[in-house]
């Protein structure tokens, strides 16, 4: 009797690891939880420390509790340490009703935008993150990259994003993991965005396509509206998209304070049928000035210590930044889309996309080019297809993607702001 109680207790405590949120799947152009309810992200970018913010349970508990009052249901984490223990943090967020989206790349395994390659060392690093996180019910999605293509002349790296999606999805399925959505988070580059999002979902083979498309967009800077912000254009390209599309970063901070009025557009009648929500950049206040909370006053940038880095306290009691925090809370409170029920949704109603043709000086990938094999390298505007374990006994001929003129780079200002935001957190302590 006594021993069976102990067994029961042990089983319970294992089950308590984020068992209280229904898992989420990408079906057609939407996310649904396993109860059949459409899911819309109200997300926060969360990276307190460069290597992994999901290892400090007590800190996660404090942050998750405050995020819950804000109305958040998702976080985005850019880097994690697959060797660390994340049980406490993932449970803390699950207890607060919050899912996690996690980037699989590490500081050493990024797919690079120039001299691009995709090989087994990278795949192993990515799948190690998946192997660590797949067990959490509140893992909502995994990214194969963030802004790999950061300039208008880097579109030749796009097939390598598909290669990473193909191989990580194959790993997921071979391991028998649930259908964890695997996608990409793109920089908002005006000249490439419509082609890139179509390319990553085109060609008719779901095994090679992303399961979702995240857009990092800082186009809506106050004062703005649906038309003047540029969101109306984003909507034209997102309408009836083949897979879920959402803002994987948003929240322009100039001039500030931030009003977050774009949330009303994203969750309102103009966009809600096409978009699955938004992730606000970012939780912690630091040099880039995007924070929704701070852990203490600014400190000397050269100061070091357990809780300090880059001139900011990076741990402790989170204090909302006023009025930004309240402004976002108000926007999210007013936005309660119900969407469509799984039982009423026909996934086949989502569109398919054409693979875009290359254009001189613009999008450089010509149509449905062969997705690079594991081990392939981009050299100039061509890439090698090498024989690999996954290529079986086909001794692949090297093939060439179409050679095209290279365009000048002309990113919009908002995208540059976004890049600065993200780069900051990555470079502070390097
Ligand atoms: C992948 O490429 C990197 C950089 O060239 C190299 O260090 C690594 O050894 C490669 N891995 C494999 C398995 O070829
Ligand atoms: C789809 O892609 C996978 C992975 O590259 C490949 O194994 C499969 O043969 C493709 N299916 C078709 C119908 O081309
Ligand atoms: C994207 O939207 C713009 C309007 O903003 C439109 O001109 C363009 O044709 C669209 N591109 C694609 C590939 O749908
Ligand atoms: C791409 O554009 C950048 C400027 O934005 C330039 O420095 C770089 O050399 C270009 N790359 C190529 C391959 O032309």
Automatic annotation (TrEMBL):
Keywords: Glycoprotein, GPI-anchor, Lipoprotein, Membrane, Signal, Transferase
InterPro entries registered for this protein in UniProt: GH (IPR017853), Glucanosyltransferase (IPR004886)
Matches recorded under Gene3D superfamilies: Glycosidases
GO biological process: fungal-type cell wall (1->3)-beta-D-glucan biosynthetic process; fungal-type cell wall organization
Function: Splits internally a 1,3-beta-glucan molecule and transfers the newly generated reducing end (the donor) to the non-reducing end of another 1,3-beta-glucan molecule (the acceptor) forming a 1,3-beta linkage, resulting in the elongation of 1,3-beta-glucan chains in the cell wall.
Protein's name according to its UniProt entry: 1,3-beta-glucanosyltransferase
Family named by the database record: Belongs to the glycosyl hydrolase 72 family.
Signal sequence interval, chain numbering: 1-19
Biased composition (Basic and acidic residues): 394-403
Enzyme Commission numbers on file: 2.4.1.-
Location of the region described as Disordered in the Swiss-Prot/TrEMBL record: 385-407
GO MF term list: 1,3-beta-glucanosyltransferase activity
